[in-house]
Amino acid sequence: MNIDHHLDAATIIAYTAGTLDEAFSFVAASHLSWCPTCRETARQAALIGGEFLGELEGTKISEGCRNQTLSMIDTATLHRFPNSPPARGEVPNPLARLLGGVALADLKWKRKAPGLALFDLPLSAASHGRLFLMRIAPGKAMPEHGHGGEEITLILSGAYNDKFGRFAKGDVADLDEDVEHQPIVEKDFACVCLVATEAPTRFKSWPARLIQPLIGI
């Protein structure tokens, strides 16, 4: 697997610090299980963060603050670092565990538009984002669009092209609200992606905007 597109450095730092939202942490962990480059970057970020914390002077905290912190442990994000070895299978290990071993082809996909199907993935109530799988038919061009907030997309199979290059299995598109693009799926295979978003897509054309409530992205 040749991975050419990686997580943004800010995303990796937030991931290792445990401040990344659950949906985005899940996509980051999935990419890390496939990408040795980003795993090494995450390891270095964790080491630097540990050294920084080690240099801080201890500060007394109130008993109330301590108890509140301990009570939050049950809802903390526990999926930052994959526990299993790096994967080379159909899907990365974190996603495989969430799907319970069900193959992508056997999922109950919801057809949202010609050539487009979605499968929503569960998140805890503490998450502010959305996590879902998206399957786009071969040769399909998505409407040109921007993003209402952060979005991270991991390619699981197939490939698409946009102005940033070619995105194939293992590649990740780590985008913010300033980015506009038009992914076009290659003709040979459908493109299946794992997507985390924090806000709806901003479609540029009126027809796309009109059907957006039906599409659900």
Instruction: State the distance separating the first and last CA atoms.
Output: 29 Å
- Average pLDDT, rounded to a whole number, is 80
The radius of gyration over CA amounts to 19 Å
CATH-defined architecture of the largest domain: Sandwich
Helix content: 25-40%
**SS-based structural class?**
alpha+beta
Can you put this structure into words, describing what you see?
With 217 residues, the chain is an alpha+beta fold. The protein has 2 domains: 9-97, Arc Repressor Mutant, subunit A (Orthogonal Bundle); 101-215, Jelly Rolls. The protein is built from 6 helices and 12 strands. The strands form 3 sheets. A 6-stranded antiparallel β-sheet has the order 1-2-3-11-5-8, covered by helices on one side. Residues 72-87 have low confidence and may be disordered.
Task: Give a quick precis of the structure.
By secondary structure, the chain is an alpha+beta fold. It has helices spanning 9-17, 22-34, 36-54, 63-71, 93-99, 206-215, and strands spanning 110-113, 116-120, 130-136, 145-147, 151-157, 159-162, 165-168, 172-175, 180-181, 184-185, 191-197, 201-203.
